[in-house]
Amino acid sequence: MIKKIIISIIFLLTTSLIFSQEQSNKTEINSSSNALFSGEKGMPFWLHTNKLGKINTSKSSLGLLDLSIHNKQQFKSSKEIALELGANITGSYDGNSALKFFEYWGRFHFKNFYLHAGAKGEEELYNGLSVTNGNILLSNNARPAPRLEFGFDSLKLFNGKTGSRFSFDGLYSEHLLLDDRYIKNPILHHKNLNVTYSVNKNWSVKLGIDNWVYWGGEFPNGNDIPGIEYYFKYVLGQQGGKKSDPSEQKNVAGNHIGQYQLSIKHQRKSGIFNFYLQHIWEDGSGLKFRNFGDGLLGISFQKMDKNNLLNGFLLEFVRTMDQGGKLHQFQPDPDDPDHTIGKGRDNYFGHHIYRSGFTSYGRTVGLPLITPALNEDGTSRGISNNRLWAIHSGLYGQIKNRIFWKTLLTYSRNYGTYGSPNEGGRNKLSAGIDLSWSRAQKPISYFLRFAADMGNYQPNTMGVEFKIAYRFFKVHNK
What we know:
This protein is mainly beta. It has six helices and 24 strands. The chain has helices at 2-19, 45-48, 160-163, 231-235, 246-250, 284-287; strands at residues 23-38, 61-75, 81-93, 97-110, 113-119, 147-155, 166-176, 187-198, 203-215, 255-267, 271-281, 295-303, 312-319, 329-333, 336-343, 359-360, 363-364, 371-374, 380-385, 388-400, 403-416, 421-438, 444-455, 461-477. A hairpin with a 5-residue loop joins strand 18 (371-374) and strand 19. The radius of gyration is 23 Å and the shape is globular. It starts with a helix and ends with a strand. 35% of the residues are buried.
């Protein structure tokens, strides 16, 4: 049903763009050609990470042809209404050829609200310096799933000197998972709510809560998991019903994961500082901070003037070691003496029913350093490494006019999982160095990246990527 709704909305938005009158039109068409080469042990981390899952990590050579289209229509009769359409199609060759739509979406805007349908990657933050794109649960590491979403941003609910300082953004969505998984055709629910307080024109503070839930689907033997009849149990985090798995009757229906978020933004004449802290949780114990210390801590700075040898930097620390403790303990539920609730051994991104985990097409949706265990056909059978700590840094700048550089350096200590540990931990150091050049007044740019992995966690390897990007068409008609 969700698939039919998504297709219908995209069709309606498309026809609206074609037949609508008296509007401003922004259209952009971009293409790129990529060639990637590495050692026989596969692509290094910074050649395949946060690229929407387009790179086959096991291959030593790969060619890509990429085409992206984006159109936005702003109505002159009502500037509060806008329509958007976007698509990205990629052809690849690594011994076998393939052509795939990685993005296909439509979005309707009305004032501060929007309705979205289709598959779309996330907006790149911090100039691409972050290992997580600034979000431990939602990077650009995996192929996006089509979704139906309602959201709002910069919404003012209060008046007055103090009330007007508050603004809200949030979303409510259902993702249709189309990849091959242990549980067939589950739905991934997502909701979040954030409130921003503007202290003054230079300082703002943002607090939020974010929640994802796997629900429904079909077991390999053909038996159905309870679906829409238990929908409110899933989205409200309630205990499962009589048809649910016994473990969900004791705990909550579905596979939940979420985070608390805090960010502080400070704008100066020289540039913008961003500080962000995210606390990850999988169940009630994490909600109560019994896994204290697990999450993401980051700081970034970007100069207002972009013509500097150093234009910005980013530093992140990630930790997922605690997970509420190594034992999965049960205790009486204070609200229901006939049931017990679990704590500990949270197994981030994994689940005993939804065994493919928090993945899309064999890649983790969130933190790329958490790695899935893959079958020979590339499908995920679970999570092989989710207890780790890591330090990541990113720098970027401009060497001279229109020649830019970037470095990415990630060190991680990987301990496997509580169920299958890497005793003492294993090291991995991943590095990426970029050079790019664009011609003045020409719609063409060139990109080069060197990348290497070292350590005793995964095979040591190195590689290189060449890319030529071309803007075919960019028009803004008022």
